[in-house]
Amino acid sequence: MSRRLNIKICTKQEELQDAIKVRESAFVEEYGYSKEELVLYPLDNQALQILATDYSGTPVGSCRFTPLPQDLDNLPPSSTLNPQTENSARELFKDSQGGRFWWLAVSPAGRGRGVAGGLIKYCEEYTAEMVRKHSSTAYMRIRANYKAHKMYLRFGYVVDSEKFLLAGQELIWMKKTWKV
Ligand SMILES: CC(C)(COP(=O)(O)OP(=O)(O)OC[C@H]1O[C@@H](n2cnc3c(N)ncnc32)[C@H](O)[C@@H]1OP(=O)(O)O)[C@@H](O)C(=O)NCCC(=O)NCCS
């Protein structure tokens, strides 16, 4: 499916709603999060929301994506900056060495066809494009749900913490660094 996927930053309210709906289909219905938890993170409405639609325009995947401002070794796990638009993201990436995505979700009907891989690649390419202007190494840092963390191993991510429990979910920090 990935060739026919369209992946973009949500710039319209309808796109954002589509992205949130996909997120809810995975994280509320399957993992038991409350809807509020999915959107009411501090400054969430200033993050980049990424939406994947299939060849027919049906929303099939989404994630939230932000640049990270510092180098990996000195980064506290919860540190993020939240750009509001692509332009402000570009501005924030100016001094950044990497990024973070989370709430990566694919609708049940869209699974097993490379949508998650497409979203991950989109975030990585965006990060690389920004970082290579001032550095030769980029990184991505994520807090994965333990149930899904093996998927990230396939994309070159490595485990970066012990497994831990947060709001009833088993999570684990993972990271990837690569040359740009
Ligand atoms: C996990 C999820 C995002 C995968 O989406 P998807 O579009 O079906 O994934 P893809 O088709 O892009 O698969 C990419 C690769 O990861 C593998 N994979 C997918 N889900 C996996 C899982 N739960 N565990 C291990 N590997 C997995 C696939 O087999 C594929 O590997 P391959 O290319 O070697 O065949 C989707 O099942 C989902 O939304 N789950 C609920 C929410 C969730 O767990 N999100 C991640 C939280 S951190």
TrEMBL record:
Listed InterPro entries: Acyl_CoA_acyltransferase, GNAT_dom
A GO term for molecular function: acyltransferase activity, transferring groups other than amino-acyl groups
Domain N-acetyltransferase: 5-179
Entries under Pfam families matching the protein: Acetyltransf_1
This protein's name: N-acetyltransferase domain-containing protein
Annotated source species: Wallemia ichthyophaga (strain EXF-994 / CBS 113033)
